[in-house]
Amino acid sequence: MRRLQVVAGPVRGRDEVRGRMKTNTEFVEHGCWQSWHSADVPLRLGVSSCLIGEKVRFDGGHARDRFVTDTLGQWFELAPVCPEMEIGMGAPRPTVRLVEEGRGTRLVAPSNGKDFTELMLAYATDKVAELFRLGLDGYIVKKASPSCGMERIRVYRNGVPVARNESGLFARTLMEHWPALPVEEDGRLNDPILRENFIERAFSRNRWRVLVRRGLSRRRLIQFHTAHKLLLRAHNEAAYRRLGKLVGSAGTIPDRELFDAYESEFHESLRTVATRKKHTNVLLHALGYLKNALDAIEKREVLATIEDFRQGLVPLVVPVALLRYGIRRHSVEYLAGQLYFDPHPKELMLRNHP
Ligand code: SF4
């Protein structure tokens, strides 16, 4: 098995990030995304090797995705994995497909009938354990691959495609063994809402890993939860309330139980996509904290901008920028500590879509 090789992103962007990150002793709680990340727990994504331009496809080519390499590569370390190469299939190689037969779904090369199922499943189990030890914040897989594809992989019976919603064998093992890990396909990342959700989850996951590395305590858990309140509400109000109750139970249940339950609910809650309606509620809620600080004209202006966002006339970044200005100008401490207003680098432009 080939050893995992982590590919760093372009030096310029990543070093800029690292330069702004807090070191161990400087770890502080604050509402800007940099304050919650750390150079010794790098943001890291697993990725199908062909997406970063490695010539590992069945035809000896690649499927480089420029968003992954040129944009995400500036902020994340990329850990490339090609399951088919790593089980020794070589490139170029005969194509494989998922085949339904009596023993379940198999990974087979139709040209020569060779069955790679057991080899792939054994490899995938070991590889996922290796990646888990390395630490990832998310994983981007190649769509439509019988090994890497996340969903809607074509399955054949007697040489004919049948309607099934399968995952590739490697991706299935990854998602089953590591259910909390954010996983997305390259194609789905073209959807701005799915893209934002995936990257927001990856940044959130990294913040949790940093917290664990620093040493979890009840006090730090409360600080972490407090900083994420509005972000959580934008995704899943019910989960936000459950997490609040969990944090409130600190001291009444064993700490290990509290931390495990919080971690699992936290990551699960962010899986729910933040909608325009939920963002609108959060923005109005935030405006409530400014109601005594803003004058009538300013309030009308912010309200009108939130309404424009609700109607899809302006992107989320517009009302968020307006509120941030008010928060800074009037030093509203609670809002200043909310990651909702600055959850990831603005250079990713995740909130600029209509
Ligand atoms: S989709 Fe997966 S198995 Fe196929 S070439 Fe890309 S990394 Fe390798």
Low-confidence stretches: 8-29
What's the order of the H and E elements? HEHEHEEEHEEEHEHHHHHHHH
The total count of helices amounts to 13
What general outline do the C-alpha atoms trace?
elongated
Structural class category: alpha/beta
Blueprint of the fold:
Elements: H1 11-20, E1 44-48, H2 66-71, E2 77-81, H3 83-86, E3 97-101, E4 104-109, E5 114-115, H4 117-134, E6 138-141, E7 153-157, E8 160-166, H5 169-177, E9 183-185, H6 192-214, H7 218-235, H8 237-248, H9 255-271, H10 276-289, H11 296-310, H12 317-330, H13 333-336
This protein binds iron/sulfur cluster.
The site of iron/sulfur cluster (SF4) has 13 residues, from helix 3.
How would you describe what is shown here?
- The structure is a single chain.
- The chain has 354 residues and is of the alpha/beta class.
- It has three domains: 11-84 and 121-148 and 169-190, Rossmann fold, CATH 3.40.50; 216-273, no CATH class; 276-348, no CATH class.
- Helix content is 46%, strand content 12%.
- It has 13 helices and nine strands.
- The strands form two sheets. The protein has a five-stranded mixed β-sheet. A four-stranded parallel β-sheet has the order 2-1-6-9.
- The longest helix has 23 residues, at 192-214.
- It starts with 10 loop residues before the first helix and ends in an 18-residue tail after the last helix.
- Residues 8-29 have low confidence and may be disordered.
- The structure holds iron/sulfur cluster (SF4).
- Iron/sulfur cluster (SF4) binds at residues 48-50, 56-57, 82-85, 142, 145, 147-148.
